[in-house]
Amino acid sequence: MARAAVRGRLTWQIANVADAVDETARVRTLVLDVPDWTGHAAGQHLDVRLTAEDGYRAERSYSIASAPGEPVAITVERLDDGEVSPYLTEELRAGDELELRGPIGGYFVWEPEDGGPLLLVAGGSGIAPLRAILRHRGRTGSDVPVRLLCSSRTLPDVIYRAELDEPAPGVEVVQTLTREQPAGWTGYARRVDAALIGEVAWPAGENPLALVCGPTSFVETVADDLVGLGYPAPRVKTERFGATGGR
Amino acid sequence: MDALDGNAIAGLLVDVFGAELTTATGVCSTCGAVRPMAELVVYNRAPGTVVRCRTCSSVLMVFVEARGVHCVDLHGLATLDR
Fold it and tell me: Which residue of B has its CA nearest to A46?
């Protein structure tokens, strides 16, 4: 459990926004300078807290999108009726302060010794913790083979598109666009279903490890499909986010 | 509304128990299902947080915070092991 940065308390602290990078029209990555950061594992998250002038507070969790050793970054998707994400994606600027605590969570994490082959499955902004894992694999020199299946609505909705277009050796990126595909699109063009998972997933006999992150219904479909293919449930790690979860 | 999972209450579990518990194993006292806390079903849009068994949907844990004090009901949980 040492790797999960176990501590007796989580303390709120003030971070500074070092950079804000637009990933898509609705998604922004915030690079944060956190003075008392204790370091994190790939796949962990942090909590963000906004306090209104009248004292009203809203908290959300966001996956850390950067590898251990890189500056802390979160990737936030704007929810139009959200209390927190519109502020994070539209108002916050480099130089602003942001209250947070973390790192949090020890389950949805990957270390090179966990091995593989690795199957990473992302629905929408569920790519964020998986990007941290991919970068961690690269920075640690791991040669664990990886397949990343990424489901997005349209090509402009693909988060980290430039990075995913040039995967590291041993990493295979498979995209599906569920709503609209550009002319000449050669990737998948439908929602992730059992047949698609069956084509992309490592055979269960290779003792693969799967990490699945996305909206609840997406994650449950994929996890059920993987168990149906013979993946043992403990080798399928899941993380769900919803309208309030942020992740 | 969509349920989340135990990852979403990792911070709450640290607040209440003082430790990272999403990798801990919970046993349902109704059906005996054994799962990591991270894989339990979590509803957190109510005033409190309700955690249910993924196998039989029984309520395992309820957390309510009032004036800075956490009230915790664990009666649906047979055991919780780290």
Answer: B11
| φ, ψ of residue A168 in degrees (nearest 5) | -70, 160
Helix (H) or strand (E) holding A210: strand A209-215
Residue ranges of the domains in chain A?
2-104, 112-241
Q: Does any CB of chain B come closer than 8 Å to the CB of residue A24?
A: no
Q: Which residues in A lie closer than 8 A to residue B15 (C-beta atoms)?
A: 10
CB A127 within 8 A of CB A115: no
Residue from A130, A116, A138, A180 nearest A159 by CA: A130
pLDDT in tens, A203-214: 999 999 999 999
For residue A44, give both structure tokens.
Answer: 């962990």
The answer to whether A79 and A90 have CB atoms below 8 angstroms apart is: no
Which CATH number among 3.90.550.10, 2.40.50.100, 3.40.50.80, 3.20.20.140 corresponds to the domain A112-241? 3.40.50.80
**Domain A2-104, what architecture?**
Beta Barrel (2.40)
Question: So what's the ipTM on this one?
Answer: 0.93
Residue pLDDT, tens place only, A152-169: 999 999 999 999 999 999
Mutant choice from B2, B4, B5, B7 vs A, greatest count of A C-beta within 10 A? B7
